């Protein structure tokens, strides 16, 4: 056996081998050591190899999926080795013959299909990147849904596209793997190198033609050699990992980069589109707006949010669909109720295609088609906008298949085919006959037990069954003499004796056992044959079923966005091909929801970047006042509008944005030796080198990570470059108040600030963006609010006052001013007055008040106390 294991393992050196032994998958040698640590299971040993103990661990077959998921998440690949014959069949070749085993599947991050291993609301993409004669291309597929896409892609754009798609696994030619390993690792994507032969464009074209049963790929579009290479590599990899059982893939769709808004990885991270900065879904824009009720609708929402459109016709069609659902509220509510009962048709189809399905997947298709019929009825006699009208045409036309599945399947089928009982009575006469014999045979066994009890006079006699003896008659040991003596021993043939029982059989019982076993096995064989027939009928119509699934997802998304718009009081944006960007009463959807939970209102703000040739708002104001929220909400409103959604604003007019760039927040990249400032400069450089005149640029605190004059000069030059060279629409937040002078020098720059109010030395944030410039940053006040010790705050005020005075009185250098200041002195502990942190000028007042008992004062004494306090305060000031 160990020789067989080593032979199989030699073909999969980079994967853990799950070696099937009965009801367990066993792992040996280094695989066992690695798996026991990763899965936190016991490591044992079995036999010896070359004089050394063989490490071993195992997992139950029935629970293998959970262990597979853990291993995949920890970066392992798993080769699943199954028994290809029964032990009885192996013994026919000789008593010492080893059961034949072989790998039936290689499990990798990008090839998962099981429900338990996947997030139903997210795609699981397998991607491939190819370069042919300096031309790059990226292809990606979700084998759990069949979605297959490809696009030309310059190598410099690989990072942004990986950020958009978030593939689980990326295939790449082994000769260029090292060049891109660092880029790929940034996105948590498993990188799988493949040989050059897998990416050969000629061989790739042949593989694709065989897969789709066409003579030429021209029927799907015109593809470059690099695109064919990337698609072919995916098909080759699927052939390897699925052992020839290729999944059901849709015809490849070619995407054009100029049809979607370009968003780089840093911007996606800064804006928290699909994941928060903490890494989870909660706190992201996707989490805040997702009201879909079907898995397919949720995946469509994430795709739309990750790839906002630049095509006006597409955007307007999507907005019209949402408008319809907002206007037709009762229809939308009825649709959502029906959609909640729609199963995941796409993933059920995929599992059927690669033989990883069961009776419940057949039922999912049946239930999905049934709900599609009901939804079509809800939309009948209604004038629909173009997008919904097209979707509604794909909801019907499955009458024959639906009728077949309705009559063939029981209401609630079992999980596994081998369990049987999923074909409804009356569907197949042969099955009904076999079931009748099987079930009546069980009744006959009960009658025989009663007969044997009367015949022997032993009321406790039982007829039982196990896998070794089959059916047998069992009595307790107290009746042994009676059963073994004449005349009973002539009828009841002794078979086995245990500690407390004796077991017998009779010719009559053996005959009945044969009939029952054959009937049960025959019934199960018939059910399996019928299952295969139903599966074939479904797969023959896979293309139409895929269209139905897509239509249901489109309806789900439209009703979900309408529900969101109504509940959150969002407005339909006007989107055109101008350079307008005007928002009235804009809000940040995530922050607004968070504040609502705390019972606090969100202050809406306007934005207007509609200048020509460019318009830049230079935003000043204190920290904590809401500048970053204002920047982000403007970007998110634009993104939502081009996704085809209503937006969190009272009004919005948006000229199509080609690129969205955001440099907000501070972070370092210590693994690459990059400081916070270096990361900031790298991201800023990417913006200045790529942004065009239709881009929207969001910049926050450029230059803050270095010395004041260095930072000011960099921020100044960056703003000038955006205005003069990129000519982009932009929001530029800064604490360098000197830059407000640019509004008078550059025609497209306008000052804006976040309003605050001072009261008794404190700063009150109004969170209102107004035209004009801030004259200070209120940093010391914010530090006090943050809880810095009073002594530190007081010293900071002292230094700030000295610096500002020196600047007003002749521009004295900061170093000279600070040199004249006395050194910091820690404040003496406050007296034990019971009052926390009393300013020195009020210490005497606090002492007087602490010693005063108001209830004991006469009116005259209270008046005298007020005069005394006033005199004490005057003497201190």
TrEMBL record:
Coiled coil: none annotated. The keyword Coiled coil does not apply. GO terms for biological process: mismatch repair. One of its GO terms (cellular component) is cytosol. Pfam families: MutS_I, MutS_II, MutS_III, MutS_IV, MutS_V. SMART domains: MUTSac (SM00534), MUTSd (SM00533). InterPro entries: DNA_mismatch_repair_MutS, DNA_mismatch_repair_MutS-lik_N, DNA_mismatch_repair_MutS/MSH, DNA_mismatch_repair_MutS_C, DNA_mismatch_repair_MutS_clamp, DNA_mismatch_repair_MutS_core, DNA_mismatch_repair_MutS_N, DNA_mismatch_repair_MutS_sf. Keywords: ATP-binding, DNA damage, DNA repair, DNA-binding, Nucleotide-binding. Belongs to the DNA mismatch repair MutS family. This protein is involved in the repair of mismatches in DNA. It is possible that it carries out the mismatch recognition step. This protein has a weak ATPase activity. This is DNA mismatch repair protein MutS. The gene is mutS.
């Amino acid at each position: 056996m160990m020789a067989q294991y080593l032979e199989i393992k030699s073909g999969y050196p980079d994967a853990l081998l799950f070696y099937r032994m009965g009801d367990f998958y066993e792992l040996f040698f280094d695989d066992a050591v690695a798996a026991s640590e990763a899965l936190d299971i016991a490591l044992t040993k079995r036999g010896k190899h070359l004089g050394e103990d063989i490490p071993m661990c195992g997992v139950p077959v029935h629970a293998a999926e959970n262990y597979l998921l853990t291993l995949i998440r920890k970066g392992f690949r798993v080769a699943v080795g199954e028994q290809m014959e029964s032990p009885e069949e192996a013994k026919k070749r000789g008593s010492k013959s080893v059961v034949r085993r072989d790998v039936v599947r290689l499990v990798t991050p990008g090839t998962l299909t099981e429900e338990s291993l996947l997030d139903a609301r997210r795609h699981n993409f397998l991607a491939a990147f190819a370069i042919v004669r300096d031309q790059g291309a990226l292809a990606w597929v979700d084998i759990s849904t069949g979605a297959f896409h490809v696009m030309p892609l310059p190598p410099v754009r690989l990072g942004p596209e990986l950020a958009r798609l978030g593939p689980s696994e990326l295939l790449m030619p082994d000769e260029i793997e090292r060049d891109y390993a660092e880029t790929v690792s940034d996105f948590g994507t498993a990188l799988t190198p493949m040989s050059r032969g897998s990416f050969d464009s000629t061989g790739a074209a042949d593989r694709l033609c065989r897969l789709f049963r066409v003579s030429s790929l021209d029927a799907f579009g015109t593809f470059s050699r690099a695109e064919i290479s990337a698609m072919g590599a995916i098909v080759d990899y699927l052939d390897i990992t699925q052992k020839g059982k290729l999944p059901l893939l849709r015809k490849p769709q070619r995407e054009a980069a100029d049809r979607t808004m370009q968003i780089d990885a840093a911007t996606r991270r800064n804006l928290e589109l699909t994941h928060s900065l903490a890494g989870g879904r909660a706190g992201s824009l996707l989490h805040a707006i997702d009201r879909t009720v079907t898995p397919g609708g949720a995946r469509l929402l994430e795709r739309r949010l990750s790839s906002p459109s630049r095509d006006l016709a597409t955007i307007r069609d999507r907005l019209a669909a949402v408008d319809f659902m907002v206007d037709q509220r009762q229809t939308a509510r009825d649709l959502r109720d029906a959609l909640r009962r729609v199963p995941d048709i796409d993933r059920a189809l995929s599992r059927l295609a690669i033989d990883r399905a069961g009776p419940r997947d057949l039922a999912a298709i049946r239930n999905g088609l049934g709900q599609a019929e009901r939804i079509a009825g809800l939309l009948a006699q209604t004038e629909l906008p173009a997008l919904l009208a097209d979707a509604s045409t794909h909801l019907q036309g499955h009458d024959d298949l639906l009728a077949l599945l309705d009559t063939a399947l029981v209401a609630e089928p079992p999980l596994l085919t081998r369990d049987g009982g999923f074909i409804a009575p009356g569907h197949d006469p042969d099955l009904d006959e076999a079931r009748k014999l099987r079930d009546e045979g069980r009744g006959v066994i009960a009658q025989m037990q009663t007969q044997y009890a009367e015949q022997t006079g032993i009321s406790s006699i039982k007829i039982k069954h196990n896998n070794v003896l089959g059916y047998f008659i069992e009595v307790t040991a107290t009746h042994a003499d009676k059963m073994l003596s004449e005349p009973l021993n002539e009828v009841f043939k002794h078979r086995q004796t245990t500690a407390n029982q004796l077991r017998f059989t009779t010719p009559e019982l053996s005959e009945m056992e044969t009939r029952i076993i054959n009937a049960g096995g025959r019934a199960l064989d018939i059910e399996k044959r019928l299952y295969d027939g139903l599966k074939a009928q479904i797969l023959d119509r896979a293309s139409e079923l895929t269209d139905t699934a897509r239509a249901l997802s489109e309806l789900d998304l439209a009703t979900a966005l309408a529900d969101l718009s109504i509940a959150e009081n969002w407005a339909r944006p006007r989107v055109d091909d101008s350079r307008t960007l005007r928002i009235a009463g804009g809000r940040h959807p995530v922050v607004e929801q968070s504040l609502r939970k705390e019972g606090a209102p969100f202050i809406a703000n306007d934005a207007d970047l509609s200048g020509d040739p460019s318009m830049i708002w230079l935003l000043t104001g204190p920290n904590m006042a809401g500048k970053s929220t204002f920047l982000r909400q403007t970007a998110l409103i634009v993104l939502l509008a081009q996704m085809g959604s209503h937006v969190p604003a009272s009004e919005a007019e948006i000229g199509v944005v080609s690129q969205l760039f955001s440099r907000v927040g501070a972070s370092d990249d210590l693994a690459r030796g990059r400081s916070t400032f270096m990361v900031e400069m790298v991201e800023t450089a990417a913006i200045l080198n790529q942004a065009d005149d239709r881009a929207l640029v969001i910049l926050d605190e450029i230059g803050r990570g270095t010395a004041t004059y260095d930072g000011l000069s960099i921020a100044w030059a960056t703003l000038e470059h955006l205005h003069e060279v990129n000519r982009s629409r932009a929001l530029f937040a800064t604490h360098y108040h000197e830059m407000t002078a640019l509004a008078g020098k550059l025609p497209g720059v306008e000052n804006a600030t976040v309003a605050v109010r001072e009261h008794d030395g404190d700063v009150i944030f109004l969170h209102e963006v107004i035209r004009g410039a801030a004259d200070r940053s209120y940093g010391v006040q914010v530090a006090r609010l943050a809880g810095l010790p009073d002594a530190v705050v007081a010293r900071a005020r002292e230094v700030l006052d000295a610096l500002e005075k020196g600047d007003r009185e002749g521009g004295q250098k900061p170093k000279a001013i600070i040199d004249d200041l006395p050194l910091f002195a820690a404040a003496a502990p406050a007296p034990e007055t019971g009052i926390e942190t009393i300013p020195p000028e009020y210490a005497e007042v606090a002492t007087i008040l602490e010693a005063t008992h108001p209830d004991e004062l006469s009116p005259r004494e209270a008046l005298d106390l007020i005069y005394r306090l006033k005199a004490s305060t005057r003497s201190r000031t």
